[in-house]
Every structure is written in C-alpha cells, then in structure tokens.
Amino acid sequence: MLVVMEAHADATKIEAVCAEIRAMGYVPHPMPGPTRTAIGITGNRGPVEQATRLQRMPGVAQLIRVTSPYKLVSREFHEGDTLVQVGPVVFGGPAVTVIAGPCTVETREQTLTIAHAVREAGATMLRGGAFKPRTSPYAFHGLGEEGLRILAEAREATGMPVVTEVMDVETLPMVCEYADMLQIGARNMQNYPLLRAVGRSGRPVLLKRGFAATVKDLLLAAEYVLHEGNADVVLCERGIRTFDDTLRFTLDLGAVPMIKQLSHLPVIVDPSHASGRWDQVLPMARAAIAAGADGLIVEVHHNPAFALCDGQQSLVPDRFVAMMEQVARIADAMERPMAS
Ligand code: PEP
Ligand code: MN
C-alpha cells in the first residue's frame, strides 16, 4: 500500500500518518518526491486493514494498492531512478560506469598491474575477489585478508573505489574495513541472513543474480537489503543456466529493460561470467549497453594463461581498451556519456 500525500501536506501531517501506520503494526517508509511525499507501507501480510482510517487523515490525497510482491525496490514505491554513489562513482545516472579487474587477487604485483591498466583504459572502479566461492573445494579460494589489503593498496594507487565479494556474515566486518562496495555473488543471492547483514552494514551493495533465479527472486533478494534501511543496491545480470551449454551461462539481456521498468535500482551486466569466453565479452558488453544497462563489470588479466581463476574469460588489457572504445560508441548512440 502506498499513501500519496497532497502536495501541500507539511511535515506534521506526514508524521501523523506515519504514526498511525506504526500504530496499526506496520512500517511506514516516507519517500519525499519532487512535488509530493508518498509513504510506503510494509509489514502487512495481506491488504492493509483499516486503510480507510488513513484515507480520512488530513493531507492524504489517495491510497494506492501495490500489487508486486516486492515493495521498496519497485517503481510503484519510488518512481525516479535511484542513484547509488560509491566514492566518486555513481551508478544509475546518465553515465555508463565500468568496473574492471581480475577475477581473483593473486599477488600484489598482479593486482596493481591490472588496476593501473584498467584505470588507464577508462574503468572507474576496481573489482577483485579476496574470498572466492568456487564450485570445487580443491580450487583456489582467495587470499582472504591479505587480498583485501592488496585491494586497498590498489585503491590508493589508482583512486578507484573497490568492490569485492563477501561470502558470509562472519567475515563481513573484515570485508567492510577494506571494501567500498560489497558484492553478493550469484551463489549467495538467496543467502537471506547475509542479505540482511549487508543491509544493516549500510555499505553499497552489488547484488548478482543467481543463475537459477528469476527476476522476481532477484528483486525480492534486493528487497531484503532495502528493508534493513540500505537503498544503495546495484543489480547485476550475469547469466542464468538454461538448456544451452554452448556458453558458460545464458546472458538474459531481456532482463535489463524489464528490471529497469519494474525497479528504480541501477542495473549492470557481467559479460565475463555470462559467456565464460573472452572472445564473447566484447559483443555482449556492447549489447548490454544497447539494452540500457547502467554499466558493466568485466574481468581483466594481463596474463590470463596463468590466472588462478577464470583466465579463459578474462580480457587482456589491450582488448579491454578495445572494449571501452566500442562501448563508448554504443553509449554515445544511447546519448549516455562514459563515466570518467
Ligand atoms: C565474481 O564476480 O567473481 C563471481 C564469482 O561472479 P558470480 O557470483 O556472478 O559467479
Ligand atoms: Mn570470476
């Protein structure tokens, strides 16, 4: 349920409606807009009972029933685009933002080399895993805190904020000490205690779509984070599992404009994990921007043959430069500048 206030309703009237909603046992979410304030109601399991009580309060223009199962992430609750700010980087505005870096932090020299290369090519944010979710328990699982320290050093050296994956509630405080943005990986998209914890952390979140998750599942996962009071969520389409195994996953680009219609949150695309092949990353990156994505997250490695993880899908720096040039041309056609 959404309570739309009259344009001239002052703070006292808005607070009175919020107090009434609380008295009914629900949670009010006042959302000031350019012309009027709307107050979202969550916590109800069915239609809000006694809603007529609100209808008759001073300053209330109308009540609107919200039909989607997610509320706080929906366009119904919040009409304008949400901007997510990570240091100097903004997601969801006019500019197309590119995050790039290695799959995994392997060594200090490796991460710094790649960080400088992607910054020079125009990336504005650095990625890199210190805690890696791997399908096999025998694979390399990342350097842990040492990896986080290296990422922090790369941030100092390049000025780029850092996004890195947090895998569990236990290590969240440690990751928060170093990271500017917390990545929730595809395998953890439905780890609800973790979603709540990153929601409470107040840090910007990059939420990747699970590879067996519907768009509705993804939006409901984001709803957990927003429900804890953290609206700084960027969604990431990174491919889903379908009957076709030609590529690592199937990039669901149709999800991009659909999510942007359903939700006010920024959406970026990961063409690296979606395709699993470096030679498919450029066309998928171009297509993602043409489909309306707000940005990209791309894996880059200066020596992919020796990468400890995902070398086969990593671009060498020269190809990343080519990707940035091509993406800039698509962005230009979409009348969007590249973030710089
Ligand atoms: C990653 O970005 O390093 C990663 C593991 O991605 P995903 O969770 O999408 O598989
Ligand atoms: Mn990877």
UniProtKB/TrEMBL annotation:
Q: Which UniProt keywords apply?
A: Transferase
A family per Pfam: DAHP_synth_1
One GO molecular-function entry: 3-deoxy-7-phosphoheptulonate synthase activity
Superkingdom of this protein's organism: Bacteria
> Which part of the chain is the DAHP synthetase I/KDSA domain?
93-330
InterPro entries according to UniProt: Aldolase_TIM, Class-I_DAHP_synthase, DAHP1/KDSA, DAHP_snth_FXD, DAHP_syn_2
* Protein name, UniProt field: 3-deoxy-7-phosphoheptulonate synthase
* Gene responsible for this protein: aroF
